[in-house]
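Exam review. A common question shows you a sequence with its structure tokens and asks you to describe the fold in words. Practice with the pair below. Do the first one on your own.
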Amino acid sequence: MKIATWNVNGIRARQTQFLEWVESAQPDVVCLQEIKASVAQVPEAICSLNGYWCYWHGAVAYSGVALHMRRETFPEEPKFTHPEFDRETRIVEARAGDTVFASVYVPNGGKDYAAKIAFMKSLIGYARAQRELGLKLVICGDYNIARTDKDVHPKERKPNIIGQRPEERDLLEAMLAEGLVDVGRKLYPDADDYFTWWAPWRNLRQRNIGWRLDYVLASESLAERAVSCPSYREIGTSDHAPVVATFD
């Protein structure tokens, strides 16, 4: 099974790239963030993506997430829902059997840092609730937190900058402590060039001077079956790269 996440930074601007990527990658689960479009604004060609149960959850020109599940893999139509703490169209979930899949877009924190901290605390409670119910969880998306200094190029490391603050990192670790595994770092523990976001200037993407902000977090029993989780820096014109986790 392939589970993919991508902050597209505007689905209307990335429509063709998105279609080409899905056709090439053939993911079973597609998690998108920052779609920046209401359902009515999603282009018709992708609104009902061929072969997928599709759910778009966005507002005009801001935030927004999506969750698409391949019909062949999930023959029964999933019920897409939102936790009570969903604000600004930032999380959508669907349950299939004993597994919950979720696409999440954590606030950047630049304009409202307190809201980011509150959202992360709610996510921790959410992960705990799934574990206590005996459910497996795969929660993918843009967390807007670089987990450690290894997840930031040395030229981009800045003490106490938002996204690298100890408080934020502690919250991400607390979430992982709820029975989740950072699949990318599990598979590539020593990689110091594994990034998913690059500031859009000075050719930073081409030079791979970036941050790792996009994660596939999975329950331990699922993460044990993960075999790959690359970041595809060469795909698309978003400032984020797609990340695709493959589970055996």
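Now try the second one, then compare your answer with the model answer below.
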Amino acid sequence: MMKYKSTRSSIEVSPSEAILKGLADDGGLFVPVKIPKIDVPFTQLAQMQYGEIAYEILKLFLDDYSSEDLKYCIFHAYDQKFDTEEIAPLVKKGDAYYLELFHGKTIAFKDMALSILPYLMTTAARMNHLKEEIVILTATSGDTGKAALAGFAGVDRTKIIVFYPKDGVSEIQKKQMVTQAEDNTLVVGVNGNFDDCQTAVKNIFHDPGFRQELQEKGYVFSSANSINVGRLVPQIVYYVYAYVTLVKRGAIQSGQEINFVVPTGNFGNILAAYYAKEAGLPIHKLICASNENRVLYDFFSTGVYDKNRKFFLTNSPSMDILVSSNLERLIYHITGNDAAETARLMASLQTEGRYEITSEMREKLRTFYGAYAGEQETLHAISALYHACHYVQDTHTAVASAAYEKYLRKVADERPTVIVSTASPYKFAPAVMKAIAGNTEGDVYQKIDALHQLSGVAVPKAVSEIQNAPVRHKQVCEAGEMKNCVRKFLRMDQ
């Protein structure tokens, strides 16, 4: 049976236990003890639908789920909630392919995994005879929050609490979250940035006294962030899907290497691509695209991870992150799966705000290429692709597009390349309209209408339905008050 272990100790659990716990008790993240290999030929996978490919991949990583349970989770996740039959369309524009991961309920790539996580988690609760009610505790930089809320809203025996940086998300991202219905949901704005939210959430998870008190009240914590393997593993699927789609179209031969360009802040999305490569997907380069908060770019350039720097609020807010949680998993792997060394480096990050890896570890990062795009470069990428191909990309995808152009200027690489398109441009209409037409007039909904007129692309339901929706969540707190918000929502003092 597949086992997952902590990046910081010898703790080992089953896949379903890892999904239920979210974080290891020692503060580490769960990683596969061994990466399984894809055991179906790519030419055979190329003939399958998205859900069928998901089954072939997930059964390898989540092998304590029965075939029937796994198929149930997949069938209910990847259904009519997506607005395209392909689930994740792959379109060629200019010199690259764009993998559109924004056709789910909340028009962001988080839907790809958060559509299935509630089913995986409730199934895991049954499998492990969990008596307590699950409390999903999540920090978001913009997209995870709404996708998690949409997934868990109204789900029996679960509650979900989402903390977001009050002034660090787009207006549409915020409206999506604060209008969320269902009594099992709570959304709280935090005076601070995403790192403040994420650090406080981790501290709540790691408070043994609070965890014990919680259990006595009939609750257990879990997470919907990509720190949870139930979020991370389903993301592997769309990299395999993109590759075999190119095989099916005859764009590549089975076994031919390709590149992926991934815009990322918390490092979860690109880590899933790394796991796909380790599982046997023929990937040459993983181009890690950062915005002006270029902490990952600097890490890949120097081997030093240093969060002690100025924090920028950008037009790609989901990437406005200085502590990339999922990088810990990669660090663990390049140490040779050395939990003690990983724990030492993470302790250094917590106490000093930085750590440095060895030259031997840097050698194991050759699959990765770091690049970044500033604000003007991002806007230029949106404008250039629109005027060349009449194709509109959001700000995060544009960071990746600009990063890819920089990569090509440095490296003579003609391999087919897939740019991971992580959100609908309608989520960031003001920045997109500024890039394409220099339009800075009017409110966000006027800019959405203008973008519709300009592009001819229908306004997604996820946007239109929130325009006049009532705001249900108005609570704001300091990072140090987040535990009290949890306590009050769960009525723990009664």
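Model answer, second protein: The CA atoms of residues 385 and 391 lie 6 Å apart. Residues 229-249 form the longest helix (21 residues). Full marks require stating both points clearly.
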